[in-house]
Design goal:
Elements (H helix, E strand, L loop, with lengths): L1 H22 L7 E7 L6 H20 L8 E7 L4 H13 L5 E4 L3 H14 L3 E3 L14 E3 L4 H4 L1 H10 L5 E6 L2 H16 L6 E5 L7 H9 L4 E5 L3 H12 L6 E3 L6 H7 L7 E4 L15 H15 L6 H15 L11 H15 L3 E4 L4 E3 L14 E6 L2 E4 L3
Parallel strand pairs: 1-2, 1-3, 3-4, 4-5, 6-7, 6-8, 8-9
Antiparallel strand pairs: 10-13, 11-12, 13-14
Helix pairs in contact: 2-12, 3-4, 12-13
């Protein structure tokens, strides 16, 4: 009797053990993705929407089972516009968090400062800022989703002023890496169109009074002005200009496109033209636009939750989606918790991203290659204008 009972118990255990072991199977370690972004400080209006875009994509991917059976785990650190802090964040993400890739770095100088650390570790640094100048030699570990001013904004802004019969165009730019890139784009756009700039003036970030620069601009006989800088500075410059009687058209580089800029301008806002990703004006895009579908998906999701739309949410969405495309082709047998495998994963992500072609994103249609780590062509952004307190598609 005891022998029969023992056989019965053993048989029952045999029936249940496979289910028990399956239920107790250990979940695969996640792929850790590191972010150093502006979550506080003057550029928080960039980093916060960017983070939202990333989380939206990662949540969707994880809900669908992740990549190679592994979830994506985002680790965010705030650098608050500080280059030294960004470098510290980068080292921590590489050495402590064991990130498979680095994303964010929306400030041009922030990305440049952190690149040496990423390059030494052989890990992708995927920037949400315009840190890659179109046509320039590529840097092996640096990619970007935000088109530089030479591609995205300055040429169409200059052309807009010419179309409005402005012939003496002035340029006012922030004394930062971003502003310097804008200056190069402005000079190139003017040269291509056979015009001579009226004057170029720079200002220090957080300038309070733009009277000296505006006085020089007025003395040049300028009949149109383009301003490059983050939202707060161009807003002050526009107010100063209008109060001093500068009535010519004023246009701004794309970094101002968001609700904060409109709030800062108040009554001075209507009619200010800029350039932005199509997502900002997604409902106004024609049905034939190849980006219409993805732009509307992000626009609707973001607007539903926040009742607004931000230029920079598209940068986070694009980085996350493009990273996922690259990670889908990573060898699934490699374990990110093992240093040898982690090094291989990092290299494969970079190599795979370089092969992405025809990806329809928020910033445009991406075509990466060994000689192009931006992957965007001129015309990827559209002109937008403030009208009745909102950014709308610009129409002549």
């Amino acid at each position: 009797m005891k022998k029969s009972l023992s056989i019965l118990i053993t048989a029952c255990l045999g029936l249940f053990l496979p289910f028990s072991s399956a239920g107790l199977a250990k979940e695969l370690a996640p792929y850790v993705v590191g972010f150093s972004i502006d979550l506080s400080g003057l550029r928080a209006e960039i980093g916060i929407p960017e983070k939202w875009g990333v989380n939206m994509v990662f949540d969707q991917i994880n809900a669908a089972g992740g990549i190679n059976g592994r979830k994506l785990q985002a680790v965010f650190y705030d650098h608050a516009g500080n280059e030294a802090q960004a470098v510290k964040n980068t080292k921590r993400l590489i050495e402590v968090d064991k990130a498979v890739a680095l994303l964010g770095y929306e400030g041009v100088s922030i990305a440049y400062a952190s690149l040496a650390t990423a390059t030494e570790a052989k890990i992708l640094l995927f920037s949400g800022g315009p840190c890659i100048v179109s046509g320039a030699p590529t840097k092996e570990w640096l990619f970007a989703v935000c088109a530089d001013q030479k591609v995205a904004s300055i040429p169409i802004l200059v052309q807009n002023l010419l179309d409005r019969n402005c012939r003496k165009i002035a340029y006012l730019y922030t004394d930062t890496a971003f502003g310097t890139l804008g200056l190069g784009a402005f000079n190139a756009a003017c040269q291509k169109r056979g015009i001579t700039p009226a004057i170029t003036e720079k200002y220090a970030p957080n300038t309070i009074d733009f009277s000296p620069q505006l006085s020089h601009i007025k003395g040049s006989g300028a009949d149109g002005l383009i301003i490059t800088g983050n939202a707060a500075d161009p807003a002050k410059a526009i107010k100063n200009a209008r109060d001093l009687g500068h009535n010519y058209p004023i246009l701004c580089d794309y970094s101002v496109v968001g609700p904060e800029f409109i709030k800062l301008l108040g009554k001075y806002g209507d009619g200010i033209v800029s350039a932005g990703i199509k997502t900002v004006v997604a409902p106004a895009l024609p049905a034939t636009d190849p980006q219409k579908k993805v732009c509307m998906e992000l626009y609707n999701a973001y607007f539903k939750e926040l009742k607004r739309i931000d230029f920079f949410v598209g940068h986070g969405w694009d980085m996350a989606q493009l990273l996922a495309k690259a990670m889908e082709k990573v060898d699934p047998k490699l374990d990110p918790t093992k240093d040898v495998d982690l090094a291989k994963i990092r290299v494969q992500i970079r190599d795979n991203l370089e092969k992405v072609q025809g990806f329809v994103g928020q910033n445009g249609i991406f075509n990466f290659s060994p000689t192009d780590h931006l992957g965007l062509a001129e015309g990827c952004y559209v002109l937008v204008v403030i009208k009745d307190g909102k950014w709308v598609l610009y129409n002549k």
